[in-house]
Amino acid sequence: FGPTRVAATLEGSKAFSKDFMARHNIPTAKYVEVHSYEEAVEALVHFTYPVVVKADGLAAGKGVVICEDEQMAKDTLKEMMVDGSLGSAGNTIVLEEFLTGFECSLLCFVDGDTIVPMVSAKDHKQVYDGNKGPNTGGMGTVSPNPFLPDMDEVLKRDILDPFMEGLKKDNMDYRGVVFIGLMIENEQAKVLEFNVRFGDPETQSILLRLDSDLFDIMYAVSTKTLKDVEVKWKEEHVACLVLASAGYPGSYEKGKVITGLDAVEDVIV
Ligand code: AMP
Ligand code: GLY
After folding, report:
1. Taking the model in full, what pTM does it have?
2. How far is ligand 2, taken at its centre, from the CA of residue 231, in Å?
3. What does the alpha-carbon distance between residue 261 and residue 39 come to, in Å, rounded to a whole number?
């Protein structure tokens, strides 16, 4: 259960993932891939501000910076491409058009032939209350995503069907979970990113709503029989809240003992 090495590159390389979307007509933000600071600065003329600067490689949530103006974009590009702040993850950069709308995490089971979306979720990425502060891996989630209108058919036609076609055309044997990060506006969806796994903390909200046996689904995914399994969900609303040690997402104190868990009622820790 899990993608092959090649399919995992959909998460591991932003450039690979954008190229996959472009080739298979999956809606996404306009972008340019660059390999040096000079090339990046030249490419900036094709964008308006804010512009999104994305390190190609994995960067533990620190690889995407939304730059308000040209100076900030140049500073960010210099840090990543010249000073090497993210190591080799920043050797290649994707410059991307800034999208407006609301975000939605759409996780799906996929066995290579069949794709079954899970219930929707919304991730709250910024560290402080009121959506302030730097982005984190996620400070909490709610499921269902309260902003998502009824647009299952649109998501199937625009995103899921071309994604499955793309896997087939590229001979990717993908059996596992694909996490599609979407930006939605006016009932149109664009893909921000693919992750090749369950999301954290999306999963904490989503799996509490699963009304089928997760083992049966995972077994069906791994044996390419997902179409024969019924994936049922509860009509419940779930919220997940992350408590983090002070300092997160920067460096933070570790090894603290958590107390008081016995007194917790009506929630799952
Ligand atoms: P990513 O890892 O590509 O999903 O980017 C991390 C976060 O940056 C996303 O969840 C969004 O909050 C934000 N982001 C990424 N790309 C864009 C974009 N093109 N327009 C607006 N926000 C973006
Ligand atoms: N919550 C976002 C992620 O798991 O990547």
Report:
1. 0.93
2. 22
3. 53
